[in-house]
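Extended Data, panel c. Modelled sequence:
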Amino acid sequence: MHAGIDFGARRSGKTAVCVFMEDEWVIEQSKKGIDSDKFIESMVHEQDIRRIFIDAPLSLPSVFTGTPGANDYFYRSADREVSAMSPMFLGGLTARAIRHKDYWLKEEREVFEAYPAGLVREWDLGEFYKKDKEAFLIRLKERVPMEMPDPENWHQVDALLAWLTGWRYEKETFRTFGDPGEGLIIV
């Protein structure tokens, strides 16, 4: 089983997790003021999620690992390819995501960096993205040959898009951006 996670600030109430299990969609969101790191760890362990697709940077630009010739202190190759935000700009969120990744890898779970906005671009759904949720979901449902949930807000939509990235990964219809030595983004 895999999960899609929209990763937000630790106590903002904006972290959402999407899973599909036993023919049922589950989308849960952290509560404002509650530690979202504990929330996602609980979800991963309770549901025994083996593959995690998270909307957060999972590595730093290679200049920080001493890669010869690396000179970009702000962006990874993958960020430039998909026009993503800099992991350095996201600071603490990036550090938390990398910490989760390292922990999950020790538990022998697979962890991938998803980019919902990249999937929106790939599927040409940008017209309504983050503007009109109902219209966006109608268009999204036209792209996916399965019953879809009705997320309550854009954080839950992004968790669903991260889950759909995992679905594409399993169907081998995904795209990969970046340098494997620096960090990949899956769309």
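The mean pLDDT is 94. This feature is highlighted in the accompanying rendering.
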